[in-house]
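STRUCTURE REQUEST FORM
Protein name: FadR family transcriptional regulator
Source organism: Streptomyces morookaense
Requested output: structure tokens
Priority: standard
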Amino acid sequence: MSLEPVRRPALSAEVIEAIRARIASGEWPVGSRIPPEPELMRQLEVARGTVREAVRALAHAGLLEVRRGDGTYVRATSELSGAVSRLYGDSGLGQLLEVREALDAQAARLAAVRADETTLDELAVALQRRGDAWRAGDFDAWVAADWAFHAGVAEAAGNPLLSELYCNLAEPLHAAMADTWATPGFEGADPVGHESLLAALRERDPDGAAEQAGANVADTRAWDTRAQAPRAQQPHAARP
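Status: completed
Returned output:
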């Protein structure tokens, strides 16, 4: 009885994995331009057609964005994040927050039961960095600390799928929240809602943690509504 021949994966699939690995590792961060075709051909030791096929596939998946006359840029770190950006990036913050509200509440509920004390202490440190960064006017550091807190709660839930889904909202969510962060009166150093959530986690109160997580997202939705109000009065204004 003869065996079926072992089929070697297409070379373009290997190139796709190589590019994806560089993106996932942070070697090519979101927003950066990847090397031009000749350099990719040299690094990967493949023909131009193979590089183009791989780039087209990753652009279709949402990881890359081809800008004619300018180059190819990293759009997202995963297919899921890229799909969210591609499908809902122009829909504003509202739809993303509706999804996040559900994930935040469930993550907080589970974290109240499963998080260990070391993790809770790390969340407290993230909150301290969040406030310090805002007061220092370091917006990028504030974004990083704020997301570290929320992603930390999601990870503390102890459900890898929930954490993966949550973290893939980061890139489109940050982009969509640009207007909200710029809204006059937005107080990014206010720790009340976040400290209340952390307190509920420390008290092992699943219902209280879920309620506070939902309230935090509701506050963000309120700020987003305020940010969009002036634009609603200017129908020809375009979102940045």
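Reviewer notes: Strands lie at 64-67, 71-74. The chain has two domains: 11-77, 81-232.
Form closed.
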